Amino acid sequence: MLEHTPDWVRRKYEQAQKEKWEESRSRITEGVTSLMLLVDGLFNKGKGSEEILPPSYEKAMEAQQEQIIQKEENFVKGSWWKKSG
Predict the structure, then answer these.
(1) How far apart are CA 3 and CA 85, in angstroms?
(2) Are 66 and 50 contacting, i.e. CB atoms less than 8 angstroms apart?
(3) pTM
(4) Pick the residue with more confidence: 23 or 55?
(5) Cα–Cα distance measured from residue 8 to residue 2, given in angstroms and rounded to the nearest whole number
(6) Does residue 78 form part of some domain?
(7) Does 80 have pLDDT greater than 80?
(8) Partner of 46 at 20 to 30 A CA spacing, among 8, 23, 53, 80?
(9) CA-to-CA distance for 29 and 36, rounded, in angstroms?
(10) Is 2 inside a domain boundary?
(11) How far out from the chain centre does Cα 35 lie?
């Protein structure tokens, strides 16, 4: 008997391919970021490094909370589907 179904094997293969692609993309992004920091340090004396580097965890969480609040403000409250009057 087969230990796993063909669908399971296909999903695991696709998952492994996706993880491999994400790792490759991450390495490329890190390399480009390093190169950008090097060029910024040489020509701009490192003044733009804050813009090049990703935000800190705390800043990213603050930005996410602001986005959530903005989405909640755009939420239509009340019985909009009922005709008034």
Answers:
(1) 65
(2) no
(3) 0.55
(4) 23
(5) 11
(6) no
(7) no
(8) 23
(9) 10
(10) no
(11) 21
